Amino acid sequence: MKSVILAAGVSRRLYPLTYEMPKCLMKVGDKAILDRQLKTLQSSNISEVIIVVGYYRELIVDYVKSHYNDLNVKFVINHHYFETNTAYSLRLCNDFINNEPFILMNADVLYPKEVLTRVIDSNYNTVLAVDIKPCGREEVKVVEGEGNRIVAIGKELIEDNSLGEFIGVAKFSKNISSKFMNSLDQLISSGGKSDYFEAAIHPLMSEHDIYYEDISDLPCIEIDFVEDLEKAQKLVKSDWFK
Q1: Residue 166 and residue 158: Cα distance in Å, rounded?
Q2: 173: how many CB neighbours lie within 10 A of its CB?
Q3: How far apart are CA 232 and CA 220, in angstroms?
Q4: What was the pLDDT predicted at 31?
Q5: pTM here?
Q6: What is the mean pLDDT of the chain?
Q7: pLDDT confidence of 177, banded at 50, 70, 90?
């Protein structure tokens, strides 16, 4: 199975820490965030990794080539990383995904291998890792239907109606893969270049079953702010990361 890591963003909310380096190369504990993701993918027998780069892309490319020359990695460049978002970055991967099933993750998520194991081994063909908890305005929230189905996703959802936070790790089936890309096309052509890719998932839910796996018992965090980074430094001391 292929995997896509979205690592093109500027990470303005972490300035000045990201003035001279991309967020994914920041260290949490003794390893960069990207190290933790790539090592987890390696140990999960992922055959190919596609990394979308933009901001300080040379640093990421050089780092991966020097540390992971035994891993099948392809780089996709988002030249418009300042004015676009993850929807645009993911759409650039269409030719590499080629209507096949794939794992998708944001490059700023700290998670133990067990998260990826649950997603890959899930009985559901298309599944999102969800931290079941009360959410605030900044989290990408999901609303639950029957039987672990997700019926809505987005930051703008009413917090009290939400099941929890989609942490940015997901698996998409071959059946949904091409439809997801078509939905991204429609989103971008209608002016959504600066939208998150979740905005292209939401329209699929009326015709396709998209499920969640509960990972709320595991130490995970999407690192957007300095406070998140500080929390991540504590979480990484958990036995789950040993």
Answers
A1: 14
A2: 18
A3: 8
A4: 95
A5: 0.95
A6: 94
A7: very high
- Say if residues 52 and 76 touch (Cβ distance below 8 Å): yes
Pairing of strands 127-132, 221-222: unpaired
Are the CB atoms for 55 and 46 separated by under 8 Å? no
- Which residue in this structure is represented by tokens 């055959």? 47
Longest CA pairwise span in the chain (Å): 47
Of residues 47, 41, 177, 166, the one with CA closest to residue 116: 41
Q: Compute the distance between CA of residue 115 and CA of residue 157 in angstroms, rounded to an integer.
A: 24
Indicate if the pLDDT at residue 12 is higher than 90: no
CATH code: domain of residue 23 = 3.90.550.10
Give the Cα separation of 159 and 161 in Å (integer). 5
Domain span at residue 16?
A: 2-241
Length of the chain in terms of residues written: 242
The answer, yes or no, to whether residue 136 has pLDDT greater than 90, is no
Tally the domains of the chain. 1
Give the torsion through C-alpha atoms of 221, 223, 228, 229, to 10 deg: 110
Q: Are strands 164-172 and 2-7 parallel, antiparallel or unpaired?
A: unpaired
**Helix (H) or strand (E) segment spanning residue 18:** none
The dihedral of CA 57, 126, 201, 220: what is its sign? negative
